Amino acid sequence: MKPAATLTIEADVSQLSRVRQFVGETASSLTPDADAIEDLILALDEAVTNVIVHGYQDSPGPVGVTMSFQSGALIASVCDRAPPYDPTTTPEPDMGLPLEQRRPGGFGVLLIRHLTDEIRYRRTPDGENELTLIKKTEMHHEHDH
Amino acid sequence: MNMTTEQVHSPVPVTVMKLTGDLDASSYLDVIAAAKQLVQTGTRDLLLDVSEMKFMSSSGLVALHSIAMLLRGEAPSNPEEGWSAMHAISREVEKAAGFETHLKLLNPQPRVAKTLDVTGFARIIQVFTDREAALASFTV
């Protein structure tokens, strides 16, 4: 496992570009898979936006983003002290179903699911939300998927 | 996010709005506000040139949906309402019988095009790679 890097920001949408830059630069030092990196940048932006807007509801608080690389996959965790919220249980909006049979869902969570291979949520013993996004990478990246 | 606009007649009056930079949760309200001002000052047809837009999150989808509604003369969903705004957009995507007639997109970068595709927006907002063809597609 390559060593982790962490960025902590204040919960404010003005900080999102810093998050994207951090994820892009750190991921680039861990893998040459540019597609995987771009997918993770958008997924992390969506996850952190959810924490700021829906978690903290625009009140102040810290958001930590930790990046590492393990078993060929980029791993990014988002930690916050907002009220408990588990996006992994948000029903996926099924675009094939009539509206009446669908539950509300956000495009942000849809994108996170589409762009990553696995998402995990836990409430830590310290009372934080921890959302982990896992993105597998290609060693030899030659084609679009 | 930087925004510039120009007016073109081809054959109907079209406002071309060029978005440069990143369209995320920090900038989407500014884009909606700019479009609202355009509509209030007479814009009926809008071509969004996104060729220099390097990043777009789902906040950008909310902006596109709100702008389409403004151009239709409808009040947009309040983007601050979060899930319910998203639900309203899902409903629009679901019932869409064709492309929006007053809002079109020019030259999204591959990453942005992928987001439009995955979320179903590519089915409701027509995407062009040729500016002249995009302008000519607007009708009275």
Give the helices and strands of chain B as they follow along the chain: EEHEEHHEHEH
Q: CATH superfamily of chain B, called what?
A: STAS domain
Count of β-strands of chain A = 5
The overall average pLDDT of chain A, rounded, is 87
Query: Could you estimate the helical fraction of the residues of chain B in percent?
Result: 25-40%
- Which term fits the overall shape of chain B? globular
**What string gives the helices and strands of chain A in order?**
EHHEEHEE
What's the helix count of chain A? 3
Shape of chain A: globular
Q: Largest interface by residue count?
A: A-B, 27 and 25 residues
Summarize this entry quickly.
Chain A has three helices and five strands. Chain A is of the alpha+beta class and 145 residues long. Chain A has a single domain, classed as Histidine kinase-like ATPase, C-terminal domain (Heat Shock Protein 90, 2-Layer Sandwich), CATH 3.30.565.10.
Attribute tags:
heterodimer; A: alpha+beta; Heat Shock Protein 90; 5-stranded antiparallel sheet; 3 helices; B: 140 residues; Transcription Regulator spoIIAA; 6-stranded mixed sheet; 39% helix; globular
Structural notes for this entry:
The complex is a heterodimer of chains A (145) and B (140). By secondary structure, chain A is α+β, with helices and mostly antiparallel strands. Chain A has a single domain (5-139), classed as 2-Layer Sandwich (Heat Shock Protein 90). Chain A has three helices and five strands. Chain A has helices at residues 16-30, 34-55, 107-115; strands at residues 2-10, 62-70, 73-80, 118-123, 129-136. A five-stranded antiparallel β-sheet of chain A has the order 1-2-3-5-4, with helices on one face. In chain A, a hairpin with a 5-residue loop joins strand 4 (118-123) and strand 5 (129-136). In chain A, helix 1 packs antiparallel against helix 2 (34-55) and helix 2 runs antiparallel to helix 3. Chain A is globular. Chain A starts with a strand and ends in a 9-residue tail after the last strand. The model of chain A is unreliable at 96-105 (pLDDT under 50). The longest helix of chain B is centred in the middle third of the chain and has 14 residues, at 58-71. Chain B has a single domain (2-136), classed as Transcription Regulator spoIIAA (2-Layer Sandwich). In chain B, strand 5, helix 4 and strand 6 (127-128) form a beta-alpha-beta unit. Chain B is globular, with a radius of gyration of 14 Å. Chain B contains five helices and six strands; from the N terminus they run ββαββααβαβα. In chain B, helix 1 packs parallel to helix 2. In chain B, strands 1, 2, 3, 4, 5 and 6 form a six-stranded mixed β-sheet that branches. Chain B is of the alpha/beta class. Classes of the chains: A alpha+beta (145), B alpha/beta (140). Chain A binds chain B through residues 13-14, 16-17, 20, 38, 41-42, 45-46, 49, 52-54, 93, 95, 98-99, 102, 104-108, 110-111, 114, and chain B through 22, 24-26, 55, 57-59, 61, 82-84, 86-87, 89-91, 93-95, 111, 115, 118-120.
